Amino acid sequence: MARDIYKDRLDPSRMDAFLRDFGFYRYDEVLGAWKPYDEVIQNALRRTCERWGLGYRDMEGQQLYEAIATWGPHADVPEPLVQVGQSFPLVILSNASDDQIQSNVARLGASIHAVYTSQQAHAYKPRLQAFEYMIDNLGCTPSDLLHVSSSVRYDLMSAHFLGIQNKVFVNRGYDPPIPAYEYHEIANLGGLPKLLGL
User: Fold this and answer.
1) Which of 20, 67, 135, 137 counts the most CB atoms within 10 A of its CB?
2) What's the gap between Cα 160 and its chain centre?
3) Is the keyword Hydrolase in the record (predicted)?
C-alpha cells in the first residue's frame, strides 16, 4: 500500500529503504502505552515521511490503515491452517484493532478457537502484557502453547521470555533468524502440519 501511495513521490530505487524505515517506526510506536492502531500507523508514516523529507498527508495514513482490513493471508496459510485446526485449537493474538480483525480472520478459512487483539489487551506485541492477556484469558500456561509466527521481533522473542517453549518461526524474510530463541524454522506454513505429525 505504501508503495502505491508514494510511487509518484519517491524514486523506486529508494522504496525498499523507505519501507524498512516505516517498519522500524511502526515497531517503535507499539512499544509504549497503548493507543488506537490507526494512530500507530499514522504516527509511524508521519515520522517516516519527516525523516525522508516527504510531505505527510493525514488522508494517506488513514488510507493505509483502512486497507489493512482488506488484506488476505499469505497464499500458503489457509490450507495448512485448516488442517492443523482439525487437531488443535487455533488462537490468534493480533496487533490489529477490533474493527479490522474479523475480516482478516474470515479470510483464513479455518475454525478459530479465540481471537485476542492489542485493543483488548491494551498492549501491542512485542510487549509481554499482550501475551499475558492471551494466556490469562485462555486459562493456560506457557507450556500449553505452540506459538507460530513470521516475526522474531514482534512475537518469538516475547514468547521465549515468557517461557513458551514450543515455537515455530515461519521465515518469510521479515526478520533475520535468531536461533538463540529456540524455535523450529519452516519456510512457509505448509511445513507446520508435518512438524506436528499430521
Assistant:
1) 135
2) 17
3) yes
Q: Per DSSP, what are the bridge partners of residue 91?
A: 114
Q: What are phi and psi of 3, to 5 degrees?
A: -60, -40
Residue-level pLDDT at 71 = 85
Q: What is the pLDDT of residue 125?
A: 98
The total number of structural domains in the chain stands at 2
For 50-73, the pLDDT digits (tens) are 999 998 888 898 998 888 888 889
Going through 7-165 in order, the beta strands assigned E by DSSP cover 91-94, 114-117, 146-149
- The answer as to whether 46 is a domain residue is yes
Mean pLDDT of 141-156: 97
Q: Which among 68, 87, 107 is the end of a domain?
A: 68
| Enclosing domain of residue 47 | 2-68
Q: What percent of the chain has pLDDT over 90?
A: 82
Could you tell me how far CA 93 lies from the centroid of its own chain?
8
Distance, CA of 99 to CA of 82 (rounded, Å) = 24
